[in-house]
């Protein structure tokens, strides 16, 4: 969650596990779109002696669909190589790493990028770009932010790229959510009531991820090569998803540990909307979903039209979601529009990201909507047209937004007779949005500049878990616990 270890097969293959995808108009460069795809879930900050890295046998992809058919019109493919400078040592680094070419930096990764435009031959646009090291600690990586900045590369073709370890930007209370959908601020209303507390950010202070980041001119992404200013323009909305593939066959080395791969590439992971495979696909179909293209997602429509969590919540919170209970057995056109087709203009205020009738899980971004002057981390549902589900920014509280959607927050826009339960408007996971800053450093989860995810936590400085703070009981107008 958002898509960390979300399917049985990919949970055993972390270097190929696409955990989050983000897409937004860059706040500091509004003529560009930033796309982030994260891999390698739940990286412990103290990850030695074999620190985390991208898979050299994995093909990482960023797909963009701009013609309304849910197939890739533009694809960026990343492949990685690893070099061991000194094969006589077991150490990742033999001293402080002060630059990307420092001789103390022993195990290094570089990558190449191929861009494919549908109907044309693939073109290699970058080779041997260096990734930064993992953030080991103040002795080994004493100025990590400088290393990360040096690993941001501007390409002659107009893109800016980064690939390396970052602070995991996903903030969620996984322990509570998967303990029978317990939202800690509402624990007094749960079927197994407990004293309320604020939410616990599972990923805070100790968890990292590996990020592939692209910043691309808008004119290079739209179907007609323009930068639309009218959100209603046909070319304004694009679909985005990340993916990872492996060769179909792998032969294990008997003694050396070196393996060989052959055969065609097979997709093993993908991600558009946060939480789609996590919450809307049944367990026996999750692996199949990861291997299929978005254009076939009508196969998973049933889980979107009648979400399992929407059926269970009224029983988990007795008396609080009785209106939602009445939707059981009703096709949820609101959920289909939000995650499978996008929303046509004039239905949901400040949201227009329809990509056509083909049902497909993609992030849908209307590039004509400028970055918000006053941002709400609840996105469109709070009147911020630049937030989820119009793309996804790193600070968007997608868990709260998604749970509110499941409980009927968007339903009145598709059914004027529907009045949501009183509890819906104040549903929250209770996890505060993490801090952001111009520079990386301790406690800075997000940056105000590319690649927008903060410096990774280092193992030496990782603090012990913080005790959960108590929170006042939640009261819902007109409802008695």
Task: Explain how this protein is built.
The chain is built from nine helices and 14 strands. It is α+β, with helices and mostly antiparallel strands. It has one domain. The strands form three sheets. Strands 3, 4, 5, 6, 10, 11 and 12 form a seven-stranded antiparallel beta sheet that branches. Strands 1-2-9-8-7 form a five-stranded antiparallel beta sheet, with no helix packed on it. Strand 1 and strand 2 form a beta hairpin.
SSE pattern, N- to C-terminal: EEEEEEHEEHEEEHHHHHHEHEE
Main sheet record? 7 strands, antiparallel
Mean pLDDT: 93
The count of DSSP E runs of length 2 or more, i.e. the number of strands, is: 14
Outline: globular
Roughly what fraction of the amino acids lie in strands? 15-25%
Uncertain parts: none
Distance between the termini: 30 Å
Radius of gyration: 22 Å
Helix/strand/pairing category:
alpha+beta
Q: Percent of residues in helical segments?
A: 10-25%
* Total discrete domains: 1
Number of helices: 9
What key phrases describe this protein's structure?
14 strands, 9 helices, seven-stranded antiparallel beta sheet, 12% helix, single chain, 481 residues, five-stranded antiparallel beta sheet, alpha+beta, 24% strand
């Amino acid at each position: 969650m958002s898509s960390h270890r979300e399917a049985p097969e990919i949970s055993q293959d972390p270097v190929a596990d696409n955990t989050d995808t983000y897409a937004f108009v860059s706040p500091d460069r509004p003529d560009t779109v930033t796309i982030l795809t994260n891999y390698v879930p739940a990286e412990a900050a103290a990850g030695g002696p074999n620190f985390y890295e991208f898979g050299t046998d994995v093909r990482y992809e960023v797909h963009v669909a701009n013609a309304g058919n849910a197939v890739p019109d533009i694809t960026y493919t990343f492949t990685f190589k690893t070099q061991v400078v000194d094969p006589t040592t077991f150490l990742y680094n033999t001293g402080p790493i002060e630059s990307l070419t420092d001789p103390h930096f022993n195990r290094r990764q570089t990558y190449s990028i191929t861009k494919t435009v549908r109907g044309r031959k693939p073109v290699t646009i970058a080779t041997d770009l260096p990734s930064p090291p993992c953030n080991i600690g103040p002795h080994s990586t004493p100025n990590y932010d400088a290393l990360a900045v040096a690993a941001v590369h501007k390409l002659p073709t107009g893109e800016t790229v980064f690939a390396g370890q970052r602070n995991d930007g996903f903030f969620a209370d996984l322990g509570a959510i998967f303990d029978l959908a317990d939202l800690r601020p509402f624990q007094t209303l749960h079927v197994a009531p407990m004293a309320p507390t604020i939410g616990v950010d599972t990923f805070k202070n100790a968890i990292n991820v590996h990020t592939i980041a692209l910043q691309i001119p808008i004119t290079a992404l739209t179907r007609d090569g323009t930068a639309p200013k009218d959100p209603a323009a046909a070319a304004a909305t694009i679909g985005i998803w990340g993916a990872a593939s492996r060769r179909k066959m792998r032969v294990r080395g008997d003694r050396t540990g070196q393996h060989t791969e052959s055969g065609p590439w097979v997709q093993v992971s993908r991600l558009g909307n946060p939480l789609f495979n996590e919450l809307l696909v049944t367990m026996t179909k999750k692996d199949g979903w990861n291997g299929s293209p978005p254009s076939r997602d009508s196969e998973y429509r049933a889980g979107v039209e009648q979400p399992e969590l929407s059926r269970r919540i009224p029983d988990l919170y007795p008396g609080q979601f009785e209106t939602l209970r009445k939707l059981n057995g009703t096709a949820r056109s609101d959920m289909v529009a939000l995650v499978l087709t996008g929303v046509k203009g004039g239905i949901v205020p400040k949201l227009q990201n329809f990509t056509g009738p083909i049902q497909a899980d993609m992030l849908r971004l209307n590039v004509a909507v400028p970055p918000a002057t006053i941002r709400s981390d609840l996105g469109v549902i709070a009147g911020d047209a630049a937030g989820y589900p119009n793309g996804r920014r790193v600070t968007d509280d997608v868990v709260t937004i998604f749970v509110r959607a499941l409980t009927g927050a968007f339903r009145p826009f598709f059914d004027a007779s529907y009045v949501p339960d009183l509890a819906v408007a104040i549903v929250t996971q209770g996890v505060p949005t993490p801090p952001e800053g111009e520079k990386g450093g301790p406690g800075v989860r997000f940056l105000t500049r590319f690649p927008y995810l903060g410096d990774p936590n280092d193992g030496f400085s990782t603090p012990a878990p913080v005790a959960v703070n108590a929170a006042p009981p939640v009261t819902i107008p007109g409802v008695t616990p």
